[in-house]
Amino acid sequence: MPDQQAVSFTASTALCAASGASRSHDSRASRTAIVWLGLLVAVGCVTPAMAQSLAPTGYWEFQGTGTVTNESLTSSGTNATDVLTIGGLAPSYTPDGIVGSAVEMSYSSFPATQGAVKFLDMNVAFGAGSTPAGGYALGDSFTIGSWYYVTNISTGGRTYVWEGATDYDLSLGSSTNNSTTALAYNSRTETLEVPGALTSGTWHHVTQVYSSVSGTTQMTVYLDGAAVGTTAGVASSTIADSGIHLATARTTVVRPLYGLMDETAVWNSALTADQALDAYNRGLAGVTLTNASTVTGYAVGSTDNAWLTGANWAGGTAPGATGDPTSTDSDIAVVGNYAFTGGLGIDMATASGDLALGGISFNSLAGSGDLVVGNSAATSGTLTLNGAAIDGATNVILNNEGGSNLTIADVQGTDSGQQLTLQLGGTANTVLAGSGRTLTVATDITERNASSGLTIAGAGTVALSGTNTYTGTTAVNAGTLAIASTAALPG
To answer: Beta-carbon neighbour count of residue 178 at 10 Å?
Structure first.
């Protein structure tokens, strides 16, 4: 085989703008490259997702570019809120969010007054309080949740993810100066420690659930989808009826967050453990809270590597439909920080030769090592991916935002599996690889419908090494496409 040759292309900004394409998670890359054997690959664009589910009462997606001047509630668009600045330096949008873009607060020093650091005031009322103008009355049972990324805790003080506007009845912030342990409060009298919640350089998701029964409110805290604990409860009447400051503490205290926030939401109900885990898994998959697909994450801490074992997945049911290659199942399977070894195996004998779902998303925030998904049976089978809205793009079949590489292979680990064919369920199919990551499809790629093709997106590398027979185009929106042989690009 001749030496591979790298060729760089510049995606057409005018073409993408005209078609309404949105930025992918790693869209800072402005150039695309193809590693190939003298084959021409077209340039294309990825369009934004439109879907609905898990609906919050208030939802801030932080989608934008440049300086933040105000941020409206995504779910209603009726509650525009002011963003206050420091010395003319306002928070800004960054493309490096957990789902699309995020808001970034990066201040060089503590300001003299709290009024200058308040990023966003959630205009909500708790308990029996009346609905504030342009805001929401959440009632006695409610939930607050957000993704955040701390960039600096060595600022000589404490840092807060959120706190009540007038006091610390409802808050999440560092326990002491420069501490990575957060304290969550329930009416100033009950606290839960959340160790590691403020570790720098890592995305975290916290959900605080306030559940009230017969005048008593308990607080349950979830860190990265796992329950930290539940308080004994306090009188609901003792919780201050006020709004919430994001990325800072209450009005009289200077404790700003240095970092990023994304996918912040409030609900006027107490989320269940499964719903809190779902919110976390959606972020891992790059899926919004209003996406209609079922998102199922691999169970945290599971050491078993069998895909079809329901107990290995959150909610107890493995994603996908078995035994039907025509299925249009839209489940999204999410694998985060996994504990198993030997790859994730799909037993195609048990699946009656077929497993169909929307897409597979890998996001190991702590870096669990490279992940291989393959066939664990001595029977050949077909994995059909129908596409889903993931990470700001539509029709995504594979997404690698993990700390390592993802491979779809014939054989899982060292097991004696036979061939695993990847079938394109739709005609448009997007493969996303994050910056610095490689996503390899080593299986043969076929199609259910004629003229089905692939779009390569993200700033990483997508490698194709099978003998592929789909008949559509292979388009590169961003990143690098590596071709092992001419057989990998049909036609």
So the answer is: 14
pTM above 0.85, yes or no: no
Q: Is 311 helix (H, G, I), strand (E, B) or coil?
A: helix
**Residue whose token pair is 């600045």:** 85
**Taking the alpha carbons of 330, 336, 339, 341 in that order, is the dihedral positive or negative?**
positive
Going by C-beta distance under 8 Å and a sequence separation of 6 or more, which residues neighbour residue 39? 483, 486, 489
Q: Domain spanning 58-283: which CATH class is it, in words?
A: mainly beta
**Segments making up each domain of the chain, as ranges:** 58-283, 292-488
- Compute the distance between CA of residue 126 and CA of residue 241 in angstroms, rounded to an integer: 5
**Tokens 């910056």 -> residue:** 435
Q: Tell me the residue ranges of DSSP E strands in 290-424.
A: 295-297, 321-322, 332-335, 344-346, 354-357, 359-362, 371-375, 381-385, 388-390, 393-400, 406-411, 420-424
Q: Is 471 exposed, middle or buried (0-12, 13-18, 19+ CB in 10 A)?
A: middle
- Please list the pLDDT of the chain residue by residue as tens digits (491 residues): 333 333 222 233 222 222 222 223 333 233 334 443 323 333 232 222 223 346 787 788 888 888 776 666 554 433 445 555 444 456 788 888 888 888 888 755 445 444 434 455 555 555 555 555 555 566 778 899 999 999 887 655 788 888 887 788 889 999 888 889 999 999 889 999 999 999 888 899 999 999 988 889 999 999 998 899 999 999 888 877 667 777 878 777 778 788 899 998 888 889 998 889 889 988 888 888 887 778 888 876 778 899 999 999 887 899 999 999 899 999 999 888 788 888 899 999 999 999 999 999 998 765 568 889 999 988 899 999 999 988 778 899 999 987 789 999 998 755 555 789 999 999 999 999 988 889 999 999 999 999 999 999 988 999 999 999 999 999 999 999 999 989 999 86
C-beta neighbour count of 224 within 10 angstroms: 23
Contact 238, 249 (CB under 8 A): no
Per the structure block, which two tokens stand in for 266? 């409030």
